[in-house]
Amino acid sequence: MTGETANKINPIRAVTPEAIKLAKTLIRLARFGALAFTNPSTGKADISRVATAPDMTGAPVILISSLSAHTGALRHNPNCAILLGEPAKGDPLAHPRISVQCVAEFMDRNAPVTEALASRYLRRNPKSKLYASFSDFGYVRLAPVSANLNGGFGQAYHMERTDILSAQFEHDEHHNEKDVLKRLNGPDNAAVAAFAAAQTGISMSKCTVINFDSEGLDVFAGGLLRRIWLPIPATTQDNLFALLLK
Description:
Radius of gyration: 19 Å
Shape: globular
Helix content: 25-40%
Number of strands: 12
Oligomer: single chain
Structural class: alpha+beta
């Protein structure tokens, strides 16, 4: 292969529904990631490991201390990126991962929307309850701008924010989130477990719903966190129940 021929090859594939589903799954199931930012003192690239959880649309949310170097860096320059996707056995480069280019949005800790974000984050990262209430800690939403998905060798995709974010429910129903989870993990849990088993092909006698959104559920079952997709997106929370329990 000549250099001229190599230059004509575009390694980026056209985005497909399967690629979008993989990208969303990686973001929603991630419990930690590598956060890249610019060090304001040196102007050079820097990186830090952070715990993460998705908001209702799928945007990553992190909990960081004002004493951390990356907090000051993000306040100085909110442009950042986060790498998500955990390698399994074998070659780590053979496993899917996604890098999401973001703008950091510092949340008002007293705002109702932050309370909802905090609940979602702490259900995903319960050990963070030890320090989440400390005065120097705060939640930051990493608003996606674009993303690069690597689904494995020869499976590279460039995506826009609209490819990786899910639609909100038709009404702002954050205040109902705890009630919905109580129902999904209580009276309707057997039906949810049956739905999850049918979608994944994995037998589940019980599962715990950690978070939900218009496109599916994040559940703990058999010691693993799994993504359970709805057959079609739900428009309202009532519609969510109808899709799960029909």
